[in-house]
From TrEMBL:
Residue span(s) of domain HTH tetR-type: 10-70
Entry's Gene Ontology molecular function annotations: DNA-binding transcription factor activity; transcription cis-regulatory region binding
Nucleotidyltransferase in keyword set: no
Membrane spanning stretches: none
Highest taxon above the source species: Bacteria
DNA-binding region coordinates: 33-52
Annotated keywords: DNA-binding, Transcription, Transcription regulation
Name of the molecule in the record: AcrR family transcriptional regulator
SUPFAM superfamilies recorded: Homeodomain-like (SSF46689), Tetracyclin repressor-like, C-terminal domain (SSF48498)
Keyword Transcription carried by entry: yes
PROSITE patterns: HTH_TETR_2
InterPro entries: Homeodomain-like_sf (IPR009057), HTH-type_TetR-like_transc_reg (IPR050109), HTH_TetR (IPR001647), Rv0078-like_C (IPR049484), Tet_transcr_reg_TetR-rel_C_sf (IPR036271)
Amino acid sequence: MRRTQEERSQSTRAALMAAGRELFAERGYQAVPADEIVRAAGVTRGALYHHYGDKQGLFRAVFEQVELEVTAEVEAATKDAPDLATVLLYALKAFLDACERPECRQISLLDAPAVLGWAAWRELEAEHGLGLIVRLLEDAVEQGLLKPVPVAALAQLILSAVNEAALMITYAENPAQARSDAEQVLAMWLIGLLAE
């Protein structure tokens, strides 16, 4: 049975995404030439340009895929939490767990701000991780569980703090101790934001 053009296009996009994701996670954006990606995907360079414009376009699509997955993991980890304090702690743990994976660490934390530019990276974060934090905080303020604060500013600061914690853990001589310390400090800070 012959595949349709749409099926062939989907297969090509999936092969490029899988190859790009693996290579970007393993070595970082700058160390991966476009020719290597298309060879690994088993497609032509023209296919890369047709579907993603260029290597940076493919990177953006890979980054968005990783962000969607991490956001879904955090949401899943918090869905059965009995209260806001527990939601915050579960969300923090789920995010730091995700950041231990090389693809999340390399693609989302290290490469994305530089490759996409801060403004584009922040815009995509707003749709995913930052968007989730904003929604949690808005719900908490509405329910009277969070002291009244400028939610957008607090959400960006929380995201920055948890991203920095993930980077601290990544570069620490003792990652387990760094994670324990970061989780303790962030948990105290986040729970301290809650209304009495």
